[in-house]
Amino acid sequence: MGRLLDSWDTTVSASYRLFGLVDTAMGAESFDAGVDRSKWLLPGPGLVYLQVPSQVGTTVIRLESWTGAPAQPPGRWAGHEEVEVDLPEGELQLQTLDSGVLEILPLVLPSPGTYRMRWHWVFNPDGGPFTSPLEGSSDVLATPGGHEADLGGEDQFCLVQIWRTATC
Predict the structure, then answer these.
(1) Cβ–Cβ under 8 Å, residues 110 and 168
(2) Is residue 109 a contact partner of residue 91, using CB atoms and an 8 Å limit?
(3) What does the pLDDT average to over 112-140?
(4) Whose CA is closest to 147, among 158, 137, 139?
(5) What would the pLDDT profile of 13-26 be if each residue is shown by its tens digit?
(6) Cβ contacts of residue 59 below 8 Å, gap of 6+?
(7) N- to C-terminal Cα distance for the chain?
(8) How much is the average pLDDT of 98-127?
(9) For residue 150, what is the DSSP state?
């Protein structure tokens, strides 16, 4: 099991039902047009976007950098997915489609390389109902309790755990 190196918390407003993490080496690249929109995470070269319900205005996001694969976080979650991504600089930016790069994240990653990202999210039980943004689905999403402090009154809380799997 890995050891926590660093963490950073912020708030983001999605645009076009998306927000993402993008390596600073990337320009205007995006995920491929043919990406599988039936999944929550939309990866591309040096980036990963999360699809969010249209009812989500603001998301609290906690990013964690680990030395290796961390234990699964406690509690019940509305959803989770993992993806592998190459980060050529090993420095991340938070990005939305409307606003572009919102802020350079002061999250310490060990070095450039290939990273695994595990995303977990939960929705505010007081703010729903939330409907799935996934292609081919309009399901009402679960809103399990237990993360009220993490939500801080916002619509969604997202935990992203990141660890290196290989170097460039």
Answers:
(1) no
(2) yes
(3) 92
(4) 158
(5) 888 888 888 888 88
(6) 11, 12, 13, 14, 19, 52, 121, 154, 155, 156, 157, 158
(7) 23
(8) 83
(9) H
